[in-house]
Amino acid sequence: MVSQSLKASFFTPNTLFLSLTDGNDSDNDVATILSKCQEYEFGAYLFVPFRKVGLGLEKTINLWLDIREVDREIKFKVNSINLGLLTAYLLKKNWKARINLIILINETDNQLKELEAAERYAHRLIILARMPSNAETHYFVGNVSDVVEEVPYADLNILTLVSSDIDMNLIRQQTNSLETSCLYTIDRGSENALA
User: Fold this and answer.
1) What pLDDT, on the 0 to 100 scale, is given for residue 183?
2) Of 80, 60, 61, which is closest to residue 70 (Cα–Cα)?
């Protein structure tokens, strides 16, 4: 109901910001709200604070890009990672931080070819999205849970979600495994980090 009433306001907001508490009492409600974002044309942030460290020193950001099922021919727009790219860039400027791009790739019979294709995609994305030239790229095979031990530590991990696929248990598991605060983003559909 709140989302519907916001759409009727004169200055319509375009992004929701939600934060999870330690308890999981409201997880189902949060998942429902996030899954409705696309229907109401809202982008969304889900902040999951890691109580022991908060936002740490605010010096390093890991931006997770899952390109396993992405069309790697970048044209004028990229799907589902725009809000993550834009947020990482703005936080980097505000914190004077360093960005690590954590890029998840497929496991294939020809891993070298897959890595080369991923590197071409990432290089082009960094240029078109005007990411800082000192952003470090790290390539990993598998999903977030598979590579947590190998990923460089960051004060904040930014991960992207798709509103049709919200799994609160997985979100909590990832945050606990990364042992740092996480910010999940859901694109509204009209953002464009390449514009």
Assistant:
1) 93
2) 80
